[in-house]
Structure formats: structure tokens, C-alpha cells
What we know:
Chain A has 20 helices and 20 strands. By secondary structure, chain A is α+β, with helices and mostly antiparallel strands. Chain A starts with a helix and ends in a 5-residue tail after the last helix. Chain B has 2 domains: 19-161 and 298-339, Metallo-beta-lactamase, Chain A (4-Layer Sandwich), CATH 3.60.15.10; 167-293, Rossmann fold (3-Layer(aba) Sandwich), CATH 3.40.50.12650. Chain B has 8 helices and 19 strands. In chain B, the strands form 3 sheets. Chain B has a 7-stranded mixed beta sheet, covered by helices on one side. The longest helix of chain B is centred in the middle third of the chain and has 14 residues, at 167-180. The two termini of chain B are 32 Å apart. The structure holds zinc ion (2 copies). One zinc ion (ZN) is lined by residues 52, 54, 57, 110, 131 of chain B.
Amino acid sequence: xxxxxxxxxxxxFTPGRNAKLAHLRDYFAHTPDPDRGWALAALTGALNIAAxxxxxxxxxxxxxxxxVLFRWSYDFVGDLAxxxxxxxxxxxxxxxxxxxxxxxxxxxxxxxxxEAQGLLGDWxxxxxxxxxxALIKLFTGSLRVGVSERLVKTALAEFxxxxxxxxxxxxPGLQPPYRELFAWLQHGRARPQVDHLAAFRPLxxxxxxxxxxxxxxxxxxxxxxxKWDGIRVQVLGGARQTRIFSRGGEEISAAFPxxxxxxxxxxxxxxxxxVRIGDQHGxxxxxxxxxxxxxxxxxxxxxxxxxxxxxxILFEGDEDLRSLSFEExxxxxxxxxxxxxxxxxxxxxxxxxxxxxxxxxxxxxxxxQLAASVNAEGLMLKRRDSPYVAGRPKGLWFKWKRAPxxxxxxxxxxxxGSGKRSSFYSDFTFGCWRDDAAGNAELxxxxxxxxxxxxxxxxxxxxxxxxxxxxxxxxVRRVEPALVLEIAYEGLRRSSRHKSGVAMRFPxxxxxxxxxxxxEADRLDSLMSRIKD
Amino acid sequence: xxxxxxxxxxxxxxxxPHPETWxxxxxxxxxxxxxxxxxxxxxxxxxxxxxxxHSDHARGGHRHVLATAQTLSIMRLRMGxxxxxxxxxxxxGESLTIKDVTLRLIPAGHVLGSAQVVLEYRxxxxxxxxxxxxxxxxxxxxxxxxxCDVFVTEATFALPIFKHPDDKDxxxxxxxxxxxxxxxxxxxxxxxxxxxxxxxMLLREAGYDAPIWLHGALVGLCELYRSSxxxxxxxxxxxxxxxxGLVGQIVLAPPSAIEDRxxxxxxxxxxxxxxxxxxxxxxxxQRGLELPLVISDHADWDELNATLDEVGAPxxxxxxxxxxxxxxxASQRGxxxxxxxxxxxxxxxxx
Lengths: 533, 351
Ligand SMILES: [Zn+2]
Ligand SMILES: [Zn+2]
């Protein structure tokens, strides 16, 4: 674990690309298998271990230290993983030998979440501060050390004295801990083979765009589609099975057997996973009933059958289509669809995302306003000539979201931020009006926002909070219910966990309504009436 | 160090005055009333006892200054005529009576010449420890444990997140990086008094025998350390040395030189610094350091607490730093504690 944590530490501190490459090459050259392979998986996001929530890590650390000292330490450090790593009691005896990275990962991969928590405590006891920090980052899935997958592959290429294209070519067929890869790079063994229909490929993502940006672009260069409100998936259709991966590369086939059991698709496809309710596609809330489940009941399969709305094709058989233009790929997708899908039972599992014809941005704007009515989040714009490029390349694909919904709510509580913002009140809880049992108006919290404002507005809010405090509990202040915030959000859902009965997706402060009296803020029932079930 | 004086009694005698009746907190620092002198005063004073040469403790313009000979020579080097009109040197362990107070200086292990001040007045004893550390330091004698009725301690690193690693491992990181980047220079930000010389000695102990390059601000103090008998090996002033001459070299400079244009004279410098604060990675990152070395001249959390236990004073006064945390921990062990809100001390060193 020590060489790995030292590598991570060097990478976060090293600003220069060449120096980062030097650290990576040095690590690959001096670390044996399988440790270096697991490190490679961790750095490229290919590691799948039970994630432990930061709150659980905190709880574990608090059980090993004085809670008052923990709080002061956290205030000072501003980062939970680092606070825990630093405050954890040290053991300097022979009984506490540091585990190897491979021991940690091989064990963690087969452990469930609760078991992983126990293991974490045991390993923390055996590591030094940097090792503890790396371990916590690994387990909480926040391993951001400022290296892209591309940079790591460049280091591999330099280490093995091969071209980066060769590394890219073999990459999708490889699995951690990459023994064959290192055998090839270091010892000149055979180059690993790739099965195109079995390997997840990183997705191509879109940049956000608004009306002003669009004016700089030519409408005739682009195709438009709805941006659906399901989840983005990659479908790997092999001869015997079909695998479904979420955007982050997590396999979710088991939760969607009606697609996972299909055979012979012979293609790698890009699309939106949705559920069907009657003859329409269901809202995101409906889809959520099917997500995050290990198994699926027969009733669920019947009430909310899943299907994939296709919009791109990456491979057909062994043929790599990614360098073709979007228009050419679309033609290949339609062709594939005609040949493979237009007969039962695949028809129920796939459809094609329609292309929206338009001549001008004004015309498209009219379509965008209809997005909510077709359960779409907005529009996707794809350059006709764009190849399929992993990551978020500039200038090729854009998402043009529909205008967010907003609600006027009253500020109720403010809490200090953490880290850089620890000296400001920057987390805001807000509420809407309803009538209590006696028929008097009361405010009930409906959500919490901690961004959307400028630095200047943050200072204004901070000042307002300090001068309108009614009560303090630790880092939280209750304020006079007198300030109205216009809150923008992406969606609403019923929730029994919230006192108000409603949960907001992605709330943020759109405007501070200094001008609006609190009594004119929105009512909870008007918010509830916007929920689409 | 303590051969001549009787062992102090662990509790003040019935008639021994409690130190708070004669050792007082004033706006200019700790004042020993029955001896009419200040310890590390923050404003020019008639009589000052100085624990060590760091600028927040040793200030200029006092009429009479009492300190170890090494501290006095550091003060003369740093402030010339301002170092005090009358200077009186006292050896470690030697005792001196000033009016009704008996005083001794004993090693604090912080930097060359650093001392704790042992004060006795009518059978009660207080120790003002200044800044101190407990780790081995080849540049100064180790901290001397002296029992007392009141122990006055610093609290610079008084949070449980501060546990300084072994300095050998930190120096090994530096040498590894020198190997990995032979075409670059390594610029290490160090405090001019104490840290610079300690880092040099640690490099020498690790077998690094090439010349070590110094920013001009460090040369005088390194020469002073050398003349006090410490073998720092060969060091050279960077001066006008061209870039090509500094390839693969280790260069020490004050922390501020890392950010200013001075560092541009070095070939693609790897920015390093040696400080206890750098244990917190976020801090190191904020400073734009490529290689933080966690080396401190202060006691860490465990050492602060162990020191309170070893000294065994029934009462502890806490000066600059994170007083609240040390007070919280000491109180839980039944030690009476008090925060002395002294002003003018840096609770963070420059690095
Ligand atoms: Zn000092
Ligand atoms: Zn100090």
C-alpha cells in the first residue's frame, strides 16, 4: 500500500504533466504484479469495490477519537478523508503490518458494504497517515488525483515503449489487474487480444449550451434529438448475452433481465434506459423503482418493463464505427435496427430516438418548450460530422436543457460551509407555506441549497444570516423567516423521509428575492401539485 | 543540567505563593513581578529574558537582555545594535538571582540556544518553556524535563491531527525525488533559523555529501551554526550561479523565495518546503508545493501531552497556538489549565 499511497500523494502535488508521467512510469517499473495492476485500475476508474459512505467513515473515526477534538480537527482540515487519516490513532508495533494494495483490493472486491466497513477499520490500524488517506479515498470513491485516463495510458505507452494508440486499442479488452498488459509492456510478450462486444467503452458526453452560445453555431451543422430523462446506458450485445453498463461503467444487467437475457444483438449501442407504463415511457421516478435493486420481481417486470431508446452505434460485430460521422453512424444504426429489431421480441426492448427536423434555432426553441410534455429534460444537439469520442470533447455534442422549474421559498436555516467556505454561512434550508392543524400558516422545510449564488451574493447572504439570527445550534443558525429565495430545481418526487412529503432534485438558488415579502412565497400544495406520478 | 538545586516539591508548601501571584500576563508578555523582568516581551522593555532567537520571541530594543550565549549571538546577527544595550549570557543550568527570583535556563530542544526559563520564588517554581520539541535534533541539545508547580507551554501543533513523521523518512523522500528528476533543481523552503541547519544535518546523516546551495538570507546563520561547532559540510551561496550549475542540486531558501522571482534562476525547480503544517495536504497544495516535507521544530500533539505528563506540574498555562484543544485534553487528565492570551506570537510559523 505504501508505494501506491506515495504515488497518489506525488500525483496530487505535482502540477507538471511530464513530472506526473515520470512518477507513473517509476511506479509501474518498480511495483510488482498484481499491485501495479490494481493501482492502474484505481487510477482509471476501473475498480469496482463496495463504496463506503463518508458518513460511515466519519462515524468510525469518531468512535476512535474524542468527538470534541475530532470536530475541531475537521474544522481545521476541511476535508473529511484527510481529517480521519490524520486523527486515526497510530500503532507502531509488529502486530500492525501494512497490507499490500492487492490484499486490500482483492478482499474488498468480494466484501459487502457492512463487511467492508469492518475491514476498513482493521486496515486503518495498519497504515501510516498517507496510507490511511489513500485507503479512505479508495473506499469512498473519491480518488481524484488530477490524472486523466489518457495520461495514465500515455505513461503505460512510455513505460513499454509502444505507441499510445496501441495501448488504446488493447485497453477495452483488458481486466484488472492487467497481468497480460504488463507482460506485453515490460517483457515483450504477445499483445493482448480484444473482444469488442465484451468491453465497456467510455461514453461520449455533451457540453451544456444556452441561447447565447447557440447563436455562434450554424443550425445546419447539427442534428437534434430529445434529451430523455432516463439513464444513459451502453448496451454490449454479444452472441450469448447482453450486458448493460451505466454511464460510469457500472454493470446493471442483473437489474434489467428483460434486456440482459437477449442474445445475438452483435453490436455495441448507446441509448437511454427507460421504463414503459402502458404505451408511454414512464418518468424518471418510475424508472427509479427499478434502479438500485439487485433482483427484480415479476410484478415489477410486468408493471414497469424496461427498454432502451437508441441513439448511437459504436460497433457492429468486429467493425469499429466510432470514427464515422454521426450522420453515417445514425444511418448504420437505422440499418441495424431494421435488420435485427423489426421482429419480435426485440421490438419491445428497443426503439429509435427520433430526429427532430429544424431549420433555425428559433424553430428548435419552440420544440424545447415542449420538452416537459414529452418527459424530456431538453434537447441534444450533435454535430453531423462528429466522430464518437470518449469523454466530453469540446464543440461536438451539446445539451440544451429546458428552462428549470422554480419555486419561491423562505430561508429558514443557514449552516456554515466546510473547507474554503467554512467562514461563511453557505448551506441554506428553505421552506414553503402550509396550514397547520389549527389552520394557521406555517413554514415547512422543502429543501437545501448550497450553490447557485455568486461570491458577492454569498457574502450578502452571510451578512443577512448573521444579522437575522433567532437561534443557534452548533454550526446552524435559525433565521427570521423574512428572506425569499427563488429556487431552481430539476425535478420533484414524493418522499416519506421528508417532513414536507416532497424531495427536490438538484435545487440551487436562482435569485435572491430581496424585494419579495415572505408571505408571498409559494405554498407547499402548489409544489405538490407539480409532481408527475 | 540540574546538579546544584534541591528537587522541587511537587506541591507548593503551605506558605509558598502560587505562581499566579507573581508571574503575570501583561499586554507586552509574561512579567515576573518580584524580579521586575519580562520573558520574550513584545515591546521594548527595561529587562528582558529571551527564550530563543525566532523573531516573534526575540525582539529588538530592550535595554538589558538575558539569554544563552548562542541566542545572544543570533540576536546580534539578526538585528545588530537593536539586540539590546546590555547583554548578559547565561549557560544552561547556571543559576542567577535577580532581586527575589532565582532563574535558570535549560535546553528546550527547539533551535540552537533555545531555552526554557526556570523561575523560583519563595519555594514555588514555574517553568516557561518557550517553543520546544522532543525529537532528536543534531543542531541542539534535547529538551530537559524539569518538575514545577506551573508549566507554561506553547500549543502550536495542539490538535490530534498533528503527529510528525520520522524526519529520516521525509529526507528520504527528498533524496528519492532528486534521483527521479536529475535534470531539475530541488528548492526547499526552510525557516532561516533552525530548520535550515537541521535539514542540512539530516541530509548529511542520510549520506548526501554534495555541496548544498543557499539563498543569501541563510548564509549568515549557517556560518554561525558552523562556528558554534556544528559540521554542516560544504554549503555555497547561490549568488549568480547560472542555471546550468544548479542542475540536480539541492537549494535551500526562505519559504517566501519559492513564490517570488528569485526561484526563476533555478532550472525547473521542484518546490519543496519543510514544516509541520504540511502534514495537512490541503495546506501543502494551497502553497503550490510539489514535495512537502513534514519536519517540525515544535512538539506534536502526542509530544505536547506526554511533556505535560512527564513534567507533572499540577497546573499548566497554555500560550500561543491551539490552546483550546490542549486545554481540553489536559483537563480530562485532571490537570488544572489556563489559557494565557499572549499577543504578538505567531501561532503558525512562516512555513
Ligand atoms: Zn520558535
Ligand atoms: Zn513561537
